[in-house]
Amino acid sequence: MAADSFTPYRFAPGDAPLLMSIPHMGTAIPAPVEARMTERALMRPDTDWHLDRLYDFANEFGIPTLQAVWSRYVVDLNRPPDDAPLYPGRPSTGLFPQQDFAGNPLYHPGAEPDDEERADRLRTCWLPYHQRLERELAAIRRKHGIAILFDCHSILSEVPRLFEGKLPDFNLGTAHGAACHPGLRLRLAEALGSHGEDRLAVDGRFTGGFITRQYGDPDKGIHAFQLELSLATYCGELPPWSYEPDKAADVRPALRAMLEAALTWAREHAQ
Q1: Alpha-carbon 264 to chain mean position
Q2: Which end of the chain is more exposed for a tag (fewer CB within 10 A), N or C?
């Protein structure tokens, strides 16, 4: 996989004290890799579909956005580079997924990536995304005296292999409060909860992935949170996972309120 075959991310600049990261919306897979993958894998079922459209109002707030180009099936940007499990003892798809969320194989037998290919994907896809993320957070921190990182995700409302039952609509993760100030955590929960407390879980099944845990450092003025949004709130849950504007219109006010709460808190606490 050539290092220059694809830019590993898209970046939209902004002047807000908040950076939005969308690490799982990418769909690009190199043709030689596609040739080794199963028909189901080529449908990319675990993509975080249409989040750029769902959150297009972020532009109004001047929020800079970092968005993956490569599919999470190439390398999962929200996993640590040593592939340590985020939730020990639970099923995981890992840094270089071999199965989808439902447990189906992504590759034909014997066609999985070897160590050399994995190292190349880490170098050309994973590392540039994280280097840019670090640079943007540092720049925001220098400019505003504070930085907030919003790691933006979505997932099927039911994934029996990974969790029991149906997920709440809003799954807010702050690494059990370690990734952001408790006041920000409360503001975010209040903003989402005002659109239905029964729709919200805070640090429940999803407490935040690698990005939230790695970059959230409240003592240094960087506060991170993740929202795992149920796909059912804005999108079809079966192929082709079509965006559904009527559903989205119902959930967008809650997402807008969440980001407004984060920006207000940041401005109140800027140094």
Answers
A1: 22
A2: C
